[in-house]
Each structure stands twice: as C-alpha cells, then as structure tokens.
Amino acid sequence: MTQLQAARKGIVTEAMKIVAADEGLSPEAVRDAVASGEAVIPLNIHHTNCRPVGVGRMFTTKINANLGRSVTHSGKGDELEKLAIALNAGADFVMDLSVGEDIPAIRQGMLNASNRPLGTVPVYETISRLDGDIPQMDPAFLVSVIKAQAEQGVDFMTLHAGLMLEDIPKAMKRRMGIVSRGGSIMAEWMMANRAQNPLWERWDEIMDILAEHDVTVSLGDGLRSGCLMDGSDEAQFAELAKLGELVERCRARGVQVMVEGPGHIAFDQIKMNMEREQELCHKAPFYVLGPVVTDIAPGYDHIVTAIGATAAATYGASLLCYVTPAEHLGLPDGDEVHQGCIAYKIAAHAGDIARHHPHARDRDDQMAQARHDFCWDEQFALALDPAHARNRWLKTRANSDVDHGDDHCSMCGKQFCAVRTSKRIEKLATQTN
Amino acid sequence: MTQLQAARKGIVTEAMKIVAADEGLSPEAVRDAVASGEAVIPLNIHHTNCRPVGVGRMFTTKINANLGRSVTHSGKGDELEKLAIALNAGADFVMDLSVGEDIPAIRQGMLNASNRPLGTVPVYETISRLDGDIPQMDPAFLVSVIKAQAEQGVDFMTLHAGLMLEDIPKAMKRRMGIVSRGGSIMAEWMMANRAQNPLWERWDEIMDILAEHDVTVSLGDGLRSGCLMDGSDEAQFAELAKLGELVERCRARGVQVMVEGPGHIAFDQIKMNMEREQELCHKAPFYVLGPVVTDIAPGYDHIVTAIGATAAATYGASLLCYVTPAEHLGLPDGDEVHQGCIAYKIAAHAGDIARHHPHARDRDDQMAQARHDFCWDEQFALALDPAHARNRWLKTRANSDVDHGDDHCSMCGKQFCAVRTSKRIEKLATQTN
User: How many C-beta atoms surround the C-beta of residue A151 within 10 A?
Assistant: First the structure.
C-alpha cells in the first residue's frame, strides 16, 4: 500500500507520524494532506534506512541536492563524499543523476549511505546502457529500467511523461531549444521514431510498478526554459497542462506525485508560474529548479537561483532543487555542493518566513537575542553553517590588534558598536521615566 | 549651482549628458528627472576625476560598496586595494566608513583613486575626533566636519537627520534597539543632552554648505531594523515620515537628496516598504541596505541580502548598498568585497529585468545565444565575472579524461548534452516539414 492509499483509507502510517513530529503537526493533519495529494512522502518500501520527509505547502520548504557523475566531466568515486557533504549541510532529498557505467552500483552505494529520500531519472541509465543511442531505445527496456530501480529502493523518479510529440515544435522556436537532459532524450526518441512519448503511452503499466514499491513520481519538465528569453512560453505551459492530466492519473492509481518546474524565469514571472502550476496540476507539490533570474552570472548561479527559489518558496513551491556555483560550467565538487545546499537552505527558510509558515521565524528571533546579548557561541549554534560563521569571526579576532573582548559587534569595534551604544541609550531612556 | 538647480533652470549639464549616454536616454529626459527630484547625480564640484552616475528609477539600478577601516577590527592601509577591487567588480558608488585616526587622509586617498562618487557618514569622523565621547559632541563641530568634507570633495553624505528625540523610545521597545552606527550616535547624544537631533536643528545651515559644493544628501535611516522581528515597526516608519519632510526641505534649497532604507525585513514586506518610501518621501531615490531576509545565515549575508535587494530593485529601490559575506562577523577583506559586489550586480540586474527596464535583458539574450552556439569566449565576455567563470570552466576541462572538445555543455558531457541533442531534434523537425 502506498502512503497515498493508506491515507485515503484513514490509516496513519509510521512515516506520517515521523513527518508530523518533524513538522509540528498532528499525524491526522499529515494523513489528510497526503490523502488529498497536496503532500507527498517519497519513501520506497525497500529504502528501509530512510527517514521520511514530507513535501507540501503545509510543511517547511525542502531542498534537494543533485549528485551523480557524468561520462566525461566528473571525478570518479567521490559521489559518496558529496552525498555526505549534502546531508551534513541539510539537504532533505538527494538525486543521483549519474550517466555512464556502473550506475546501479553507484546508486546502491548512495541508497545505503542516504538516510534521506533518493531520486533518479531512469532514462539516464536507460540511455547509458544503450551507449547513448537514443533513437534505438525500446520503450519496454525503459520500463524495465524503471522496474529495476523501483525494486532497488529509489524513492522518487523524474519521468518526462508530459512532453508530447505535438509540443516539440513549440520548443524548436526557442533560442535555447530543449535544455532538460531527460527532456531532450525523450524528444529525440519521439522525433526519430515519429512516435508519441513512450512514458505517456505506457503510463498505466508504469503506475502499477511504482504503486507496488511506493515510488513517488516527479513529473519532469522536459520543456523548461533554458534562458530568460524562452521563459513562460507556450511550450512550457503546454507541457504543464499535460502534467496536470498525469497528476490525476497518478492519484487515480494511488501513486504519489509531484511536479517539476522552471528553469530560467525572470523574477517578476515567478509568482505567476507558481500559481499556474497549483491550478493546472491540482495542487500537487511543486518541485522547482531555481528559477534562474539572470543568465549573465556563470560561477554564481547558486546566488542567482537562491533569489528565484526564495520567490518560488514564497509563492507556491514545496521543494527546491539546488543549483551550485558550478552550474553551466561543470559538475560541482564537494565545496560547491556545500555552497549550493547552504544557498538553498537560506532560500527555503526565507520563503517560509515570507509565507508566514508557523514558527518559521523563531530561530531568527533567537539569533537576534543572541546578537543583542553578544552570545557568540549561541549565534554560531543557531547559524545555518556554524563552522563557517565561527571561523570567519575568529579571523576577525585574530586580525584585531586592540580589543579581544566579546562584548561588542565585531564589525565596528567596541567604541563604535551600535548595539553597545543602543544599550547606553536604553539606560538613559530609563532614567528619564 | 547644483545639478538640481541647473535642471530646474532648464540647463543640461555635462554630467547629465554623460548620464544620458550611459543610460541610453536623451539629455533632456535626464534633466527633467533631476529637476523633479526623482533622480540625483551625486557629484561634488571638487571631485573632478569622478565620472557622474545617475540614481533613479528611470536609470539602471546601481550598487554601492562600503569600505573603510574600523578602530579595532580591520587591516590597515588596504582600503585603496579594496577600492580598486570594488570598482573593478562594477561598484557604481563607494562609501568610506572609516572610524579612528587619519580619516581625512584616508578619504583623500580614496577621492583621488575613485572615478566613481564617494560618500561618507560625517558623524563618524566627528566622533572619532572626540575619541568616542558622544555626549560631548558640539553640534557646531559636527557641522564644521560636514563643511570640511564638502570642501574636500565628498559626493554624498549620510545624515541621520530624521531620527527625532521623541521617536527614540519606540526603538527601545525592540529586541535589537538601534543597530545603525550613525543612528545610535545621534540617539545617544540626544538622550544624554535631552536635546533634539542637532542635524535637524541646523538643517538650513547644513543645506547652505551642501548646496555650495553640490553634495547630495543621503538621508540616513538611523532607526532601521536590526532583525526580522523589529522590521517594519513604528520606529522605522516614524523616522521615514520625517525623512519625507527633509526631502522637501532639501529640494526647496536646491540640494539633491536620496533616502536610505532597511535593514532586516522579511521578503514579503519588501514591496510594501519600497512603496511606502516612494509615497512618504515624494519619489526621492531609495537607497537600501539589503534587505536582510533571514537572520540565521552569518557568513552568507551577501546571498541573504541579494535576495532582498532583488525584490527591492524590482519594487522601488534605485541604489543597493552591498552586504558582504563578512557581515555580522567582521569587516570584509578584498575577496569579500568582490563577492559582495558581484552578488549585488546580480541583484541589480535581476531587478532591472523584473521591472522591465528597457534593454535590461539584452545581455542575457546574448548569453543565451552564446550558450546555444557553444561560444565559450563570448560567454565569459558576457559574464559578470569573466575571469571567475573561465577559471571554473577550465577546471572542468582539466578534470575531464575523455573529451576536450568545446561543442557541448560542460556539465553533461558530449553524449548527454541537451543542447547538442536539441540541435539534432531541430534537424529532425525540419525534415518533417
């Protein structure tokens, strides 16, 4: 039984109880959210070392870290190290996007090491096994890979099932065409074979497999825009409408489902995009990449997209897929994975505050108190990256040649510390009254 | 004659012509914007090596880099190096916030080295010369420092003239009190002397000095919030209303004026804050610090505030004061100055795109074309930080053990490059028709 099927029957599962505890909600509230489809708990029945995580607007906003090696451009064997870095930095979900050889072995290693839900894009393994020959892909083989991954314990799978043959020409009008790796694979297969999307065609069969192992579908946005110029276009929204249909088919079969979204989108278009997904996709949790709000900052796309992701979290997204400083230039190393995760913890949290999620600001208020009181240890304990904050502060102290006291802000120095001065003012104000 | 006085007389100054050329506007349009007070061109008549820069909503959004050493916590003698880094990274304005000894000499060095407008907070020098004894400050001495700085060539000055004695108790109710360094100085002086704000009291005299040298006033927000909990409170808005009065007094005297703003403000409050400033301050250009949208990420406040700054630029700000990764922990070193500038170039640009500023997206569209065409050199030339982007890409190539070709994206590798695949799809699509 999937979490969705259980919820509909009124059953509160162990996973729901854990999510409820983590979110400060009642188990029944979580159950109801899962039953409605507005929340999902991606958790393959075989991934037994995984702690359940809820995705949905009634929960805190979650972040995902993409990992996995590429054929030509990644160091080998360090994916487990990056996984540890991502989990340590607070990633709620991870995806293995490896292509090339030994994918099942890499994935098994990550499943064993990850106590958080793991996702994949099965068509990557499929095409890797065909040595990159996309037109030759047998749809039955693709389904067999999905089945093997479901049996192995993958918690959620990106399936580009809503990219329709008839919508491909719309994407060909763009400056950047199709920039989704999975989307481009599906589209080439369709165009080369003059055939409809094989995932769409075999959807019922796929549903049976996923329901058996409670794999959550993440409906891929194969036609997401690859530059601002292409954002929010007819290709993107044609696919989104189809994803809405697939949401209903998933739910009808008891399969949990979320929807993936843009992409490169100007800052002012984000709210509209979030609202449209909620409307067209029947409030299925929205899982967004960025969005990228300018194309001119390669090397800093974690910042570029944290801006977009904050707006996305504010206006409708439930899960934010991180982007690292390496985006558009290479695959991230361990430090870049860390940087990406922190940028997205910031975005998720700032979004939760902005949408007035209950208690979201508590930690900020505690930080303010610690700053007011010059309690440096407490400030670092409350920081998203305690070691980094402490080290930077210690550097200031090491450079200081006058005063090593802790009773003032480390920027202005003791004599000019506004917080110190403010306390004197408070005393003066008290004397007046 | 100030730029404002000239504009009102229908004169197009040399500075207006340069701003017009930089902004792609007619000189008359710039003149009209300056005449209305909706734009300013901070440019002291003595700062002859300075290239004029326009601030206002009809121009692109500008960024400011804060520099200057503190008494206890900064390396000595490296402010000129940081200035060069800031200008090289694209800072449109710089401020010297030094406290301690030798401030006029530090400032003269920066004026000589900066071809961009330089700002100060004169009360810092004033109190430094009094060895930190705030209550003993003679208002006449403060005015004399303002005069000396104006004569030296300072282009704009932050004056916390709208922080009124009667509003201080409102700030004392907060968790963080007063966190503006200049604001806390003014407030302590007022409370210790039971006297009204000396800048407010001597405003006409100050106006005469500033008009003579065409120093632009930047009305300081001494009561800006220091944590999310304190954001958008009565203290902040009481001061903002007073700043609106001062805007009118500046304009009446022919003095250019802009207004400074928050601070720590939740993401969802930024639009309201921008609109309120435009309304209360008669459309004077808004110069904002951040805003900071969460308090829990010390070490990453350039990212935290780039998020807020993008929203600010979208909804009403004209000048963004950068925040560096060192914020809340120390004064920035050269690399942190660079990081802060780039984060704010991103925010300013993303905001310009979001508010549909004419041609704002052109460079992004060129980047998209360069990406589509795998023109790497052009991508780096278009990047906000070309050297950083190129170095990161070269690292990818150095790590690659298979294919050093340039005709594919450096993330997925040649076989899985979506842009390559997309081009094959385009070919297949053409064959259909």
Answer: 14
